[in-house]
Specification:
By secondary structure, the protein is an alpha/beta fold. Helices cover 20% and strands 22% of the residues. The protein has a single domain, classed as BirA Bifunctional Protein, domain 2, CATH 3.30.930. It is an enzyme of class 2 (transferase).
Length: 274
């Protein structure tokens, strides 16, 4: 394992560095619609507006950092790098957002988290992303899933098993304004993965998406996953030193072509899709 590189400002021997900003301590967590049924889930636009209000409080040091955990109604969102050819071919509406990254889907069975965190001077956005990845990697290890990072790509991944390609189980896309982050991660717990077949998720054509349920055959409830993830987020977002999990092994596998509406799906091992 390796220690992540970071120039983070730190309290040493009780003394704060000269560039330390007096920001409210702690991490608040709020939840929306984790146990609700489709039709009563968290509206994406309403959640986006709520993020902006919280960011205004956090970046002006009127409130401590906060993580919003939720389950959205089905929606496609497109980051700033999304290409036209990666959007749904059937004309499904897409919400263009101000985060990094490409297009993705949110919806029932997916745990979405929006960490709104003030970054002290010396803590970069990449370090923030690595910490979100680490929290999810450690959570999934508790469930018996060995996951990690892919160099040059964000998110949390499973390696190829020689038949299936590398598979993303958690997507991450963030924005930083006034040294404060918004947007965040989407962990596939037990969603309908066919929702990803009409787009090119995150603009990546040579890898697949997966979920806890697809990999293990069953999955905990979103409430349970949120309960298990919360202490991991508190630990990693405290910005203390940590040991970074290793990248996944890069194994050869048959060529993968992401299914789209204009071409048939590749053959999938029986029982792999859930």
């Amino acid at each position: 394992m390796r220690m992540p590189k970071s120039g983070a400002s730190r309290i040493v021997a009780g003394e704060r560095p000269a560039d330390w900003v007096n920001h409210p301590a702690g991490l608040e967590v709020e939840r929306h619609c984790l146990d609700a049924a489709p039709g009563a889930l968290y509206d994406y636009r309403a959640g986006w507006e709520h993020q902006r209000r919280v960011l205004d409080e956090v970046c002006h040091h009127r409130a401590p950092d906060r993580v919003i955990l939720c389950q959205h109604e089905s929606v496609y969102t497109a980051g700033r790098r999304t290409k036209d050819e990666d959007r749904p071919l059937d004309g499904t509406p897409v919400i263009d957002v101000d985060r990094g990254g490409d297009i993705t889907w949110h919806g029932p069975g997916q745990l979405v988290g929006y960490p709104i965190v003030f970054l002290q001077r010396g803590v970069g956005v990449v370090d923030h992303v690595r910490r979100l990845e680490e929290a999810v990697i450690r959570l999934l290890a508790d469930y018996g899933l060995a996951t990690g990072r892919v160099p040059g790509r964000t998110g949390v991944w499973l390696p190829s098993d020689g038949l299936r390609p590398e598979r993303k189980i958690c997507a991450i896309g963030v924005r930083c304004a006034h040294r404060t982050t918004m947007h965040g991660f989407a962990l596939n717990v037990a969603p309908d993965l066919e929702r990803f077949d009409t787009i090119v998720p995150c603009g990546i054509t040579d890898a697949d998406v997966t979920s806890i349920r697809r990999e293990l055959g069953s999955a905990p409830s979103l409430e349970r996953v949120a309960d298990d993830l919360e202490p991991r987020l508190r630990e990693l977002l405290a910005m203390r030193p940590y040991r970074m999990s290793p990248d996944i092994p890069r194994n050869a596998h048959p060529r993968f072509c992401r299914p789209r509406a204009d071409r048939p799906s590749p053959r999938t091992p029986e029982g792999a899709r859930s």
